[in-house]
Amino acid sequence: MFKQCDRETVYLFPPRSDWLPEGHLARFVVEIVEQCNLERLKASYAGRGSEAYSPEMLVALLFYGYATGVFSSRKLERSTYDSVAFRYVAANSHPDHDTIATFRRRFLPMLKGLFVQILMIATEAGVLKLGTVSLDGTKMKANASKHKALSYGHACKVENQLKVEVAELMKKAEAADKADIPDGMSIPKN
């Protein structure tokens, strides 16, 4: 006897958020971005034209993509179709590559600050395997040893290093978009 294989089912994936296991990096990114203050981003939208994608979703999509080595906006778009984790981050929507690249370019200075903020949260929490941070205010016992605590000086040093790394990520993303060949296009070698 075989397990049923029915691709015509209305929902191949459940319509709930149990697509990914608890503690998955995509869940961590979404939870952190939802906690970030994106009012400056939202205020810059004029409210004209068609409905825009949520800034929270686009920030999470970019951050998750960069965290997993996907820098090209075309590959990010494709991943919202092909990858369950990207589909989760994008809330089952599929922003096109031009929207993703335009969002990144338009809000680059703010994104750099947000990315550093997200990385600082992960660093301060000592999260090596992302997704093990509790964001609901639950109190837990912690090791408050002076040797384990993050001093102000060290925090500034870490923040400066993260700023450099985020700037490099943004350069990689821009280079990937410039070098990316549109789907279905082939360039002759001669």
Overview of the structural elements:
The protein is 53% helix and 0% strand. It has helices at residues 25-35, 39-43, 55-67, 73-82, 84-89, 97-106, 108-124, 152-179. It has eight helices and no strands.
* Class by alpha and beta content: mainly alpha
The helix count comes to 8
**Relative strand content:** under 5%
Q: Radius of gyration in whole Å, from Cα?
A: 19 Å
Q: In terms of per-residue confidence, which ranges show pLDDT below 50 for 5 or more consecutive residues?
A: 128-143
Oligomer: single chain
Overall shape: globular
Rounded mean pLDDT score: 76
Estimate percent helicity: 40-55%
Give the end-to-end Cα distance, rounded to a whole number of Å. 55 Å
Largest sheet, in brief, is: none
Order of helices and strands: HHHHHHHH
**Total E-strand runs:** 0
Concise account of the structure shown:
Helix content is 53%, strand content 0%. It has eight helices and no strands.
Write the layout of secondary structure elements.
Elements: H1 25-35, H2 39-43, H3 55-67, H4 73-82, H5 84-89, H6 97-106, H7 108-124, H8 152-179
Keywords:
190 residues, globular, 53% helix, mainly alpha, single chain
